[in-house]
Specification:
The chain is of the alpha/beta class. The chain is about 50% helix and about 20% strand.
Length: about 130
């Protein structure tokens, strides 16, 4: 298991270096903001069940969003994967399928971001599989 954790950390650090080159900001700040949003919205249902929101919205300033789109980055998936690993380490249960949605916002100052979360409406497994196809 130690080798797998080391590989996971190496991948995260590699992505963080790429992110820093793209937006000239520390990506750890955004990842930490997602983790804090997740941790601050924990609902303890029982001793063995801790539920957290499953839908996260990251609003980026125009410049940052445009730069990511221009480079064809799959940053939403990378952030989703990182948040999924965080939830797994904490023993969280997602309120549904985990998503991190990246949007451009006029309300966010240049070079900054805003992270919000909530529970996505329930989607049946059949409906989710059809949407994926």
């Amino acid at each position: 298991m130690g080798a797998l954790s080391a590989l996971e950390q190496a991948m995260e650090h590699g992505w963080e270096a790429l992110w820093a080159r793209v937006v000239d900001r520390e990506p750890v700040e955004l990842l930490d903001a997602l983790r804090r949003e997740c941790d601050s919205n924990v609902v303890v249902c029982s001793e063995n069940r801790v539920v957290v929101p499953n839908a996260y919205d990251v609003e980026l300033a125009h410049f940052v969003y445009d730069e990511l789109v221009r480079r064809g980055s799959s940053v939403g998936q990378v952030l989703t994967d990182s948040l999924a690993r965080h939830g797994e380490r904490q023993g969280y249960e997602w309120a549904g399928p985990l998503t991190v949605h990246i949007t451009r916002s006029d309300q966010v100052p240049n070079g900054r971001y805003r992270v919000t979360s909530g529970a996505m409406q329930h989607v049946s497994a059949e409906g989710f599989q059809q949407a994926v196809r």
